[in-house]
Write a structure and sequence with these properties.
Layout: E1 2-3, H1 7-19, E2 26-28, H2 36-53, E3 57-59, H3 71-88, E4 93-96, H4 106-120, E5 123-124, H5 133-142
Parallel strand pairs: 1-2, 1-4, 2-3, 4-5
Helix pairs in contact: 1-5, 3-4
């Protein structure tokens, strides 16, 4: 099960996982995205992308708001939800598209993923997908996908995306 932070970050990772014979189901669950209009843009873009490539995605409402600027809390909330659904669904692994971003804290993501996986009883699949970051940007541009300029919480973690 793959946590999808957004469609642009999903592009390369979904392609890579498919090419490497993974069976993938997505989860769009992002309780950090503010304001509501931004959340709707990302949700609609994810739905459009998933339909275009045939990715099955579970869309869950943002029932817990992550604290702005607290990456650890945000990662933990999203990874715990993904791991729980993956375990309940009989998946072998869970992972996140956050692993493609050079602006995310990879060591922290890996640490929390492994902790959560151990707690819930499912393996966290870690892969440094940052090598595909530029390709994902190009893929998103070619598909005319909305590309956001920040992670979602309002703290400017992302560089300007053109």
């Amino acid at each position: 099960m793959l946590h999808n932070c957004c469609a642009p970050c999903t592009t390369f990772i979904y392609k890579w996982l498919n090419e490497n014979d993974f069976e993938i189901k997505g989860l769009f669950y992002n309780p950090n995205i503010k304001p509501p209009e931004e959340y709707e843009k990302r949700l609609m873009t994810m739905k459009r992308y998933a339909e275009a490539v045939g990715l099955k995605v579970i869309y869950q409402p943002n029932d817990i708001m992550a604290e702005s600027g607290n990456c650890e809390s945000c990662y933990r909330i999203r990874l715990r939800r993904t791991a729980g659904l993956a375990k309940d669904g009989g998946y072998d692994y869970f992972s996140t598209t956050l692993l493609i971003s050079p602006y995310q804290k990879h060591d922290l993501l890996k640490e929390i993923g492994e902790e959560v996986g151990s707690e819930i009883g499912i393996d966290f699949y870690y892969q440094d997908f940052r090598v595909g970051y530029q390709e994902s940007r190009q893929m998103a541009k070619e598909m005319n996908l909305y590309r956001q300029r920040y992670c979602g919480c309002g703290v400017e973690l992302y560089a300007k995306v053109n």
